[in-house]
Amino acid sequence: DTGVSQDPRHKITKRGQNVTFRCDPISEHNRLYWYRQTLGQGPEFLTYFQNEAQLEKSRLLSDRFSAERPKGSFSTLEIQRTEQGDSAMYLCASSLQGAGEQFFGPGTRLTVL
Amino acid sequence: ILNVEQSPQSLHVQEGDSTNFTCSFPSSNFYALHWYRWETAKSPEALFVMTLNGDEKKKGRISATLNTKEGYSYLYIKGSQPEDSATYLCAQRDQTGANNLFFGTGTRLTVIP
Fold first, then answer.
1. How many CB atoms lie within 10 A of CB B86?
2. How many angstroms separate the CA atoms of B51 and B27, rounded?
3. B75 with B86: CB under 8 angstroms?
4. Contact B68, B92 (CB under 8 A)
5. What gap in Å lies between CA B106 and CA B85, rounded to an integer?
6. Which of B4, B43, B91 is the closest to A3 by Cβ?
7. Alpha carbons A5 and B43: distance in angstroms, whole number
8. Bridge-partner residues for B45, per DSSP?
9. Beta strand A108-112 with A10-13: parallel, antiparallel or unpaired?
10. Contact assignment for B42 to A41 by CB distance below 8 Å
C-alpha cells in the first residue's frame, strides 16, 4: 500500500446525472477526509470519517451529496442530480487519529456539462 | 472557518534563483500549519507540519519558518529547479474534533529553465 488512491481520476457527466467516486486510504489510517477544490480556490473541507462513522459534515455538503465508509476502509462520495456548480476536483485524504498529518490522493476531477 | 491567505498567487523564476512565498493565518487558537506541494496530475505531497512559534524546518533546498504570534509562515526555495514547478499550498489545522485543514488558495510556481 503506497498511498491514497482515488477512482476515477476524471469524470465527465451531464447535468442531472448521478456520479460516485471512490477513495482507498492508507490501510492503517482510521480517519478519512473529503475535500473539494474549485477553480481559483484552495481545497475546502466537506466531511470526515473516523473508522466507519461520519462525524462531521461541512455546510458545503448539500443534501445531494452523500458519503459512506461502510467497513471503515474505502469510502464513496455520491453526488445526485449533478449541477454545473459541482464541477471541481474532489480530493480524499487519510490520517492516523492524533497524528494530524493528512496524506492526499490524486483527486477526481468532475466536469458537469 | 479559518481564513488562510497566500501570496503571491503565481510566480515565475529563472532556474537557479531563490524564491519565497508567504502564508498568513489567524494567530489566535493556533494549532498547526501544514505546507504541501501539488504537482499537476499528482497527489498533494506533504512538505512540513509546523506547530511551535519560531519553528524552522528544512527538506533539501526547501525550508519554512513559522511565526504564530503574528500569524505568518514563509516557504523558501533555494536555487530553484524546473522540477520545483508546482502549486504550494499552506493550510491551518483546526484544533477541534475533525482536525480538518483550512487551505489558502496556493502559490503557483513556474521555474523557467
1. 20
2. 12
3. no
4. no
5. 13
6. B43
7. 9
8. B37
9. parallel
10. no
At A85, is the secondary structure helix, strand, or coil? helix
- Kind of pairing, strands B10-14 and B107-112? parallel
Mutate to test the interface with A, among B43, B50, B51, B93 (most CBs of A within 10 A): B43
| Chain B residues in contact with A31 (beta carbon < 8 A) | 99
Which amino acid, residue A91? Answer: L
Q: Give the residue on B whose Cα is nearest the Cα of A89.
A: B41
pLDDT digits (tens, 9 = 90+) for B12-34: 999 999 999 999 998 887 889 99
Query: What type of residue is B63?
Result: S
Task: List, for residues B29-68, the tens digit of each pLDDT value.
Answer: 788 999 999 999 999 999 999 999 999 999 999 999 999 9
Residue B13 burial by Cβ neighbours in a 10 Å radius (0-12, 13-18, 19+): middle
Contact yes or no for B49/A101 (Cβ under 8 A): yes
CB A3, CB A90: distance < 8 Å: no
**Mutation choice for B interface testing from A1, A23, A30, A45 by most B CBs within 10 A:** A45
C-alpha cell at A108: 477526481
Owner of C-alpha cell 516557504: B75
Report how far Cα A26 is from the mean position of its chain's Cα atoms.
Answer: 14
Residue in the block written with cell 462531521: A56
A84: DSSP letter: G
